[in-house]
Design brief:
The protein has 282 residues and is an alpha/beta fold. It folds into 2 domains: 162 residues, Rossmann fold, CATH 3.40.50.1220; 101 residues, SIR2/SIRT2 'Small Domain' (2-Layer Sandwich), CATH 3.30.1600. Helix content is 35%, strand content 14%. It is built from 9 helices and 9 strands. The strands form 2 sheets. The chain has a 6-stranded parallel sheet, sandwiched between helices. The protein is elongated and about 60 Å long.
């Protein structure tokens, strides 16, 4: 997932933007990754300058209470900053294109909910959302804010005022959390997990099918801010390639779709999508 490079953002050359606009005729399905949210203050896993880290896997999370303590402690600290993030002009440009009938839907690999905040109505969150928490035993859903309140009540020694390094999934790095009380399901006492796809976990089949339907019904595919390192993204690219529809990729740095893209724009998403919006809307 490509992030924004340091320095002053520069808009791609006019001829490149015009070429993209000519390719993006009719309806345009959009696939976004972490690179679209870096200008909202949310870091990128794989963009230039991104710190190396090894996210917790689903196998670790399920294997021991100590892993769940570390995850929920870091997730609590990171979540407040994560949900305070606001959409940037790239998110808003896509919402405007949807409102005008040009974008039938946005498929996002992000869990930050910023497309919805920006006004996009048809958003397929293939990796879920940090706003929801699910019980792995009974399936009960909880609002993340309610779970955060329970964490605060049970861990007064831990919460409040900590300076943390935010991670792309809303997690944060923490120290000793051996005394941290992990929230459980208030219905059945089962294990709670944010309704996001962890590393090592599969995207739910019905969610991927919804994403594939967005791509299948469109006349072109626009990829914004994703290096396409995740298999679900590559599968959507392949679907568009087989249909021989134009594929335009906007990302800083290489992506796994560079060889099959009709056009690759090596630039930031904010400046590129706002410029494309101006060209695509009457």
């Amino acid at each position: 997932m490509g992030g924004a490079a340091a320095g002053i953002a520069q808009q791609p050359a006019a001829d490149v933007l015009e070429q993209a606009a000519e390719l993006l005729t009719g309806t345009v399905a959009v696939l976004t990754g972490a690179g679209i949210s870096t200008d909202s203050g949310i870091p990128d896993y794989r963009g230039e300058g991104a710190p190396k880290r090894t996210p917790m896997t689903i196998q670790q999370f399920l294997s021991a209470e100590s892993f769940r303590q570390r995850y929920w402690a870091g997730s609590y600290l990171g979540w407040a900053r994560f949900v305070a993030a606001e959409p940037n002009d790239a998110h808003r440009a896509l919402a405007e294109l949807e409102a005008a009938g040009r974008v039938p839907g946005v498929v996002t690999q992000n869990v930050d909910g910023l497309h919805g905040k920006a006004g996009s109505r048809h958003v397929v969150e293939v990796h879920g959302s940090v706003d929801r928490v699910v019980c792995l035993r009974c399936g009960q859903l909880f609002a993340r804010g309610a779970v955060a309140e329970r964490i605060e009540a049970a861990n007064g020694w831990f919460v409040g005022g900590a300076t943390v390094t935010l991670n792309p999934d809303g997690d944060a790095d923490v120290g000793d959390v051996s005394d941290f009380v992990v929230p459980d399901c208030t219905v059945c006492g089962g294990t709670l997990k944010p309704e996001v796809v962890f590393f090592g976990e599969f995207v739910p089949r019905e969610r991927f099918q919804e994403a594939a339907a967005v791509v299948r019904r469109a006349d072109a595919l626009l990829v914004a801010g994703s290096s396409l390192a995740v298999n679900s993204g590559i599968r959507l690219i392949e679907q568009a390639r087989r249909r021989r529809v134009p594929i335009v990729v906007v990302n800083r740095g290489a992506t796994k779709a560079d060889r099959v893209a009709t056009l690759k724009i090596d630039a930031g998403t904010t400046e590129t999508l706002t410029a494309l919006r101006d060209l695509l809307l009457p």
